[in-house]
């Protein structure tokens, strides 16, 4: 997955391998991280089905080049996420 950010005349490119995304999902699911999430926000994190999310990320491997997100703000900032 590739994340492109354009802000105030600068361009950033952040490569995120899908295996790292799966690792991030596993870390978010751990009790150590869950303890440090504020109580008011914990209900939103607990609504996520981590197994389904992990399966979706593994299915995305077949769609290389797919644009997931393309956002352009009024101040000229652009964010694009491509598989």
From TrEMBL:
Keywords: Membrane, Transmembrane, Transmembrane helix. The chain crosses the membrane at residues 12-33. It comes from the Bacteria. This is Uncharacterized protein.
């Amino acid at each position: 997955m590739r994340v492109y950010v354009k802000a105030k005349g600068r361009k950033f490119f952040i490569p995120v391998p899908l295996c790292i995304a799966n690792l991030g999902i596993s870390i978010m699911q751990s009790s150590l991280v869950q303890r440090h999430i504020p109580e008011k926000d914990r209900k939103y994190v607990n609504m996520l089905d981590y197994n389904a999310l992990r399966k979706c990320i593994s299915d995305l491997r077949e769609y290389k080049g797919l644009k997931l997100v393309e956002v352009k703000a009024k101040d000229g900032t652009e964010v694009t996420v491509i598989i």
